[in-house]
Amino acid sequence: MLAVAHEVVLAWGWRRRAYAFLAGAIGALALAPFDLFPLMIVPMTVSVWMIDGCVGRAATDRRVAGWIRGLLEAGEAGWWLGFGYFVAGLWWLGAAFLVEADQFAWALPLGVLGLPAILAFFPAVGFAIARMVWSNGPWRIFALATGLGLSEWLRGNLLTGFPWNVFGMALGSNAVLGQAASGIGLYGLTILAIAIFAAPATITDGDPNGETTRLRFRPLLLACAALAALAAVGAYRLSRPDAGVVGGVRLRIMQPNLQQDEKFRADNKDRVLQHYLTLSDRATSPTTSGIADVTHLFWPESAFPFILSRDPDATRRLAARLSSGAILVTGAARAETVRGGPPQYFNSLQVLTKDGLAEQGYDKVHLVPFGEYLPLGWLLEKLKLRQFVHIPGGFTAGSGPRQIMIPGLPAGLPLICYEAIFPDEAAATGARPKYLLNVTNDGWFGLTTGPYQHFSQARLRSIEQGLPMIRVANTGISAIIDPYGRVVSSLRLGVEGVLDGQLPQPIEPTLFSRVPNGAPIVVWLLAAILGCLGKVLGSRRR
Fold first, then answer.
1. Is the pTM of this model over 0.90?
2. Residue 431 to residues 402, 414, 470, 507, 509: CA-CA distances in angstroms?
3. Are residues 222 and 271 in the same domain?
4. I need a surface site. Which of 102, 366, 401, 462 has the fewest CB within 10 A?
């Protein structure tokens, strides 16, 4: 391992970039669906050695220019590592460009390589911040956790934010290790993950003939102890009994497995609607023969290739099938005209009863750039560009309220599509909801790793909040999840079917749900203090 460390530390030019890129790409295997979390050791350990190399070269130049050059070198290493991580973790975005290949295939490199290239600037900033407080001893692990932890939070919050595959998901994807998110959330988990998986880099520290050699295994042992503690806490939480179920509620989730192709067009609306109704009424057991035997039926995001609220024939057909008293909750595009102006379109969650469309509903607040609207649309539309969804002018963001009251169910918090990857989106303002409802359409991405990653991140919201989740996906993965993140029942990716079940009860509010920003900040401050302490101690030794 010492030879590998020396090779990485001393590498320069294309070799240095290649090592960083490859290490980042290997780190993506720690995420769903592979969940090989120990492989996050590779990018985090290489990160330490990369910054070590920058410090060593800068040490020969005491001028300000040398210090700045050291920051730029660290930032470059972070960019290449991030680029490899995001290319390997987000390659599935290319599938969306091939749904309408005649219009979007030309832009496929922008999605597969362009977006990762932009996102890679965040770990570049993280490396530069870590370099500022870098030291020669084991404390530098906390400098890395400080820099990368902050840059990951920035990635999830700046502009529209994109916290997909945050480094902490290496732990968060694991049902046991991810339980710590109930206390410190995704970003607190991220700081722990960086510090734990970077610890093996210290094995190569010290003079092989010196006294310090005896101490170099201590950080690794502490990291193993921290990992064991996370596992113990997780095992304890998962051993606790179920919180029970909401009485009188019988759920049915319909997963139609319709692809985003020519079949999902307005002229096929009758076939699509009939497919939904036939599938929803399928018998699943001797005691559950169809819609008449459930209280609530759930359909996925953007379920219809038409505007449901403007199609009275479709709403009458649906109401007729709900004559038993079942409630339909479905994703649907909604149109609204204000003061005679052009119509505004919303990506919505709508509720139907036997009497037709109900007043309850929710309009998606956090829209997907380029998918649901065009940033700088006034400019890009002049270049004949448009978003993936065929909506004139794109969708309009909703304004709330966030909670939804569905007849026969307690208050719930809806999350449409990728709203479920944002920890803050699932944090209630006001009265605490009793469950999370995530409707999504991952059909854009086919049978790739993307839907698995989406599901893993949505499940972590249940752990963070201590709330059960009803997840309804077009092509999968649909599931009922309990407040500990345990999957009660699910439908696999790429299958057509229905899922029957009951709504689990929530548990007591978690620490993270009470102070969603406080706990991660405390963890980050602790890492920053330890990193700065190492800098001070190192300066005194010199």
1. yes
2. 11, 14, 19, 15, 12
3. no
4. 102
